[in-house]
Automatic annotation (TrEMBL):
This is Palmitoyltransferase. Belongs to the DHHC palmitoyltransferase family. GO terms for cellular component: membrane. Its EC number is 2.3.1.225. Residues 305-332 are annotated as: Disordered. Keywords: Acyltransferase, Membrane, Transferase, Transmembrane, Transmembrane helix. It catalyses: L-cysteinyl-[protein] + hexadecanoyl-CoA = S-hexadecanoyl-L-cysteinyl-[protein] + CoA. Its main location: membrane. The chain crosses the membrane at residues 12-31, 51-71, 167-191, 203-227. It comes from Sinocyclocheilus grahami. InterPro entries: Palmitoyltrfase_DHHC, PFA4/ZDH16/20/ERF2-like. Residues 122-242 form the Palmitoyltransferase DHHC domain. PROSITE patterns: DHHC (PS50216). The DHHC domain is required for palmitoyltransferase activity.
Length: 332
């Protein structure tokens, strides 16, 4: 027991190493750009002021989005998806797998669940003792079920899911802007150092490494950001891109794809002025999502809406804190 706790503690400590590496590189880039480039290398005062102003805007937005991606807790299923004491006792006492599936199916009728396991059964997490909402998955690193889980990212030491997916995308985009700005403004001084127009000194090596590091990170970020832009356009998570969600009629990679405009609004919200600011604006509460192939008239959730909402209480309040709830609407 003590050994297990010690290993878990070591794992938590080591999990911060990627974040420390990124933070160290960013702090060094701040020193190299502000002091070695702007104050030591630049002689034009107007150029120095413009560079410093634009650099700090990029730096602040990068740090803000990175902070939000790291420290925004991933959302977990609400209490409605946990088994009640009687249901849990009935489920655990039953030894026949087919009957257990029937018990879960009966409970799930009251919940807005449309996806199934590969076997066609209701998706249930034995470790969390929770019926999984659509697009919810168990993270073995966080040791809990995450709403609309995309992946566990070591570079932010956090699960990327419903609560912070927008922040993760903004972090990638502002990281690219940060790298592009540094590379574009440093390049001319890199050439001057290279041909000997500027004197040798410590600033020369900082400028050289600034360009190489910025270009290296930009290339890697460009592919990752492009991949996630494609995922957002298709309304898929990374997990769904590798394994299509299963519905009652079978697997469908485009099951949650409701059109580019609505896909974007699900992640970034209705107010376009807030799309590029790291504040939570995503639609819904992460427990259910519009379906592409389901019409409103055929939606069983509308028939059970009273059951779903009648004992909402605290869950409704928590949904309001996380963002506006969304009514399931679909396009044929």
């Amino acid at each position: 027991m003590a050994l297990s706790r010690a290993l878990r503690c070591c794992q938590r400590i080591f999990s911060w190493i990627p974040v420390i590496i990124i933070s160290s590189v960013v702090l060094w880039s701040y020193y190299a750009y502000v002091f070695e480039l702007c104050f030591v290398t630049l002689s034009n005062h107007l150029e120095r002021v413009v560079y410093l102003l634009m650099f700090h805007v990029c730096f602040i937005m990068f740090c803000w989005t990175y902070w939000k991606a790291i420290f925004t807790p991933p959302s977990t299923p609400s209490k409605k998806f946990h088994l009640s004491y009687s249901d849990k006792e009935r489920y655990e006492m039953e030894e026949r797998p087919d009957v257990q599936k029937q018990i879960l199916a009966e409970i799930a009728k009251k919940l807005p669940i449309f996806t199934r396991a590969q076997s066609g059964a209701i998706r249930f997490c034995d470790r969390c003792q929770v019926i999984k909402p659509d697009r919810c998955h168990h993270c073995s690193v966080c040791e809990t079920c995450i709403l609309k889980m995309d992946h566990h990212c070591p570079w932010v030491n956090n699960c990327v899911g419903f609560s912070n997916y927008k922040f993760f995308l903004l972090f990638l985009s502002y990281s690219m802007i940060y790298c592009v700005f540094i590379a574009s403004t440093v390049f001319q001084y890199f050439l001057k150092f290279w041909v000997g127009d500027l004197p040798n000194g410590p600033a020369k090596f900082h400028v050289l490494f600034l360009l190489f590091v910025a270009l290296m990170f930009f290339v890697s970020l460009m592919f990752l950001f492009g991949y996630h832009c494609w995922l957002v356009a298709k309304n898929r998570s990374t997990l769904e891109a590798f394994s299509a969600p299963v519905f009652q009629n079978g697997p469908d990679r485009n099951g949650f794809n409701v059109g580019l405009s609505r896909n974007l609004r699900q992640v970034f919200g209705e107010d376009k002025k807030l799309w590029f600011i790291p504040v939570f604006t995503s639609q819904g509460d992460g427990h259910y999502f519009p379906l592409r192939t389901l019409r409103e008239s055929e939606n069983p959730l509308l028939a059970n809406e009273g059951k779903w909402m009648e004992d909402g209480g605290s869950d409704e309040e928590s949904a309001d804190e996380n963002g506006p709830s969304v009514i399931i609407r679909t396009e044929s």
